[in-house]
Amino acid sequence: MSAQPILDIVQPETALRPALDNLKHAFLQAPSPSAEQRIERLQRLHQALVAYQDRLIEAVDRDFNGRSSAETLMIELLPIFEGIHYNKKHLRKWMKTSSRKTPLMLFGASTQVHYQPLGVVGIVVPWNFPIFLGLSPLAGALAAGNLAMIKTSEFAPATGALMKEMIAEYFTSDEIVVVNGGVEVATEFTQLPFDHIVFTGSTQVGSIVMQAAAKNLTPVTLELGGKSPVIIHDDFPIEEAAKRIAFGKGLNAGQVCVSPDYILVPRNKVDSFAAAFSEAIAKHYATLKDNNDYTSIITERQRDRLLDNIHDAKEKGAEVVVINPANEDFSGTRKLPMHVVKGATSDMRVMKEEIFGPILPILPYDELDDAIQYVQDHDRPLALYYFDWDKNRIDKVIRRTHSGGVCINEVMTHTMVDDMPFGGVGSSGMGHYHGKEGFLNFSKAKSIVVKGRFDASQYIAAPWGNKLFNAFI
Ligand code: NAD
């Protein structure tokens, strides 16, 4: 295996297409990698991560200007290790040709489905999980026998540069290529004739990517964003719900696609929820400013956007509670304390746009049906969280709402289960990775009829007066 040169692709029009052509050519030389070859590639990815783990953690910390190594380990690296292990364990079973029931009309033939690699998968990565969201889809693509090209996020440049170095050291340019760059590179990348594109990012850019891919009829998996609601039932202890939600909302300072975006709380419990949530956050993060456990906001621009949204909510009459336990001054930093917005209304930006940061609006409701109706009236979210002990009501909420995934009495942890598909619905995305569904997503299920020596067509072909044919109709 010859290591690939570390090229910084700054001239995309001269570098991207040849890199893809090279991968496509390489794929066609070996279009059907065995289980052993796939496992070996996954194993190499594992080795690469072990070798680069510390430097990757440090790069993410630099990109965020403050994110703890424990958090990066927990929410980025460990899930990739798990995913690699899971894919290695199951891919033999998934690859097996599946025999199907042959209709009587095809008497003498056998029918089967082959799961064939698609070819070269293009993977576009956002900044919030700059390692996991590149390498987790990669593990799925490799398990299904594909090659890949990854476009990292321009807002996590240190991580992007290191991912490029790592992949170039452990894989040849005939296997995986990493490209760094901004919107220009991304635009050109997504216009390339990949065999499949996995895009993780905003709903708005997802639509642009889908249109670009449509020109080549390239299928897309879109892992998008949205406003993931939490509904708390009156019967569920509000302090317990607040504690469980605080754990999830605090991760990466709310910069997570499945972060609880807003909370629907029984009208009489708004204040008790806000108080319990504030207390739970303050317990996790007693100080914020110099505390790496509490992640910074990725850029000044994102921080300004969040501050504008808080300002907009205040101007429109909301009561905003700032959770700043040590009473610190955050000017000149990229830290932003958690904000709880009481009295949020639908005309506020915090209720119109995905929040993607440490702001939590609380919406009061009177009847559970009203809360369900609110969710139904809005775009289909990536996740929905419901807190209740009653099985019938839980079932009702699951059946009457649409979302990519659901957690009951918990937030976000469904993303940690490799054995379940992960993906959105409607404006939160399409397609899946993780689980067997991920393998199928990156494979072509090819239907094959194999005819034997016996030719039954004489009985089912013209002249149509043929007796046997008439017996079928
Ligand atoms: P983004 O859409 O701005 O960018 C994502 C990627 O798309 C980047 O690599 C960027 O370079 C590229 N890009 C930007 N403009 C493009 C264009 N015109 N054509 C092609 N590619 C383009 O998203 P972001 O700000 O990096 O990430 C935040 C968003 O990602 C949030 O909406 C969040 O919910 C979503 N997200 C979703 C998931 C999920 O699994 N569903 C996970 C993480 C983040």
TrEMBL record:
From which organism does this entry originate?
A: Photobacterium sanctipauli
A GO cellular component term found in this entry reads: cytoplasm
- Top-level taxon of the source organism: Bacteria
| Family assignment from sequence similarity | Belongs to the aldehyde dehydrogenase family.
Q: Which is one GO molecular function term here?
A: aldehyde dehydrogenase (NAD+) activity
Active site as annotated: E223, C257
**GO BP term, example:** aldehyde metabolic process
The record's listing under Pfam families reads: Aldedh
Residues of the Aldehyde dehydrogenase domain: 19-448
Q: What is this protein called?
A: Aldehyde dehydrogenase
Q: Which UniProt keywords apply?
A: NAD, Oxidoreductase
